C-alpha cells in the first residue's frame, strides 16, 4: 500500500471526499507519506505544491473544484493502483526577486507566473530588460507577466499569451492591456533568461508584483528567472497526461 497523505480544499465537497478516502486508505501524514493526494481545484494544487516543495513529495490531484486543469478525475476506487500508473511531470518554478520603494527585498517562487499589476487608476510604466539588455524602454500598460510552461494556460492565456508545451524550454512574456506600444503582443524567451522589470515613475504609478500567492506592493524593480534547483512533481493519469492537455488546449475553439 502506497503511503498517502490527503489534503483538501475547504469546500464541503472536497472535505467529504477526504473523509471517505481516509476511511478507505488511511492517512500517513506528510512526514511519512510517499505521495500527497490533493482534493480540490487548481488553486489547491498550487497551494499543495508550495507546502510540500521542501519535502520533495509528488502530488496527485483529483478534481473536487471547478476548473481542475492540473487535476485528475475524481474516483475513490483503486487509488494506489492509479498512483502507481501515473505519469510524473517535473515543473520548475520562477524565482521572483522584488525590491520595494522602501528598499526592502522580497523573494518568492511561482509555479504559474510572476505578474506585475498597476495598483491605482493610472497605467503602469515599465522598462523590460532581458539578460542585461534593454528590450523595451517603456511599456505603458495595466501590467505584464512572465509564466512557466505549466502556467501558460492560466493567467497568461487569459491575457492572450501563447500556450507553451512543457518540454519547450520557453517562457512566455505577455503584456496585460498594453497601451503603448499598442501592437506589442509579448515575446517567447529561452528558459534560462534573466528578466528584469524596472518601474518608471513608481511614486506616481505604483505597481504590485505577484508570484503565485505572494504579493509585494510598491515595487521599483522585479527580477524573474527559472530556478532549476527547485522541482515539483505533478502526477497525472495516462489518459489525462498534463503534456497532452497543454497541447490539446491549443486546439480548443
Automatic annotation (TrEMBL):
SUPFAM superfamilies xref list: NAD kinase/diacylglycerol kinase-like
Keywords: ATP-binding, Cytoplasm, Kinase, NAD, NADP, Nucleotide-binding, Transferase
Keyword NADP: yes
Pfam family, one: NAD_kinase
UniProt: NAD(+) binding residues: 42-43, 112-113, 142, 150, 153-158
InterPro entries to which the protein is assigned, alphabetical: ATP-NAD_kinase_N, ATP-NAD_kinase_PpnK-typ_C, NAD/diacylglycerol_kinase_sf, NADK
Top-level taxon of the source organism: Bacteria
Cofactor(s) the protein requires to work: a divalent metal cation
EC number, UniProt record: 2.7.1.23
UniProt keyword Plastid, yes or no: no
Biological process annotations from GO: NAD+ metabolic process; NADP+ biosynthetic process
Active-site residues, record numbering mapped to chain: 42
Function in brief: Involved in the regulation of the intracellular balance of NAD and NADP, and is a key enzyme in the biosynthesis of NADP. Catalyzes specifically the phosphorylation on 2'-hydroxyl of the adenosine moiety of NAD to yield NADP.
Protein name: NAD kinase
This protein's encoding gene: nadK
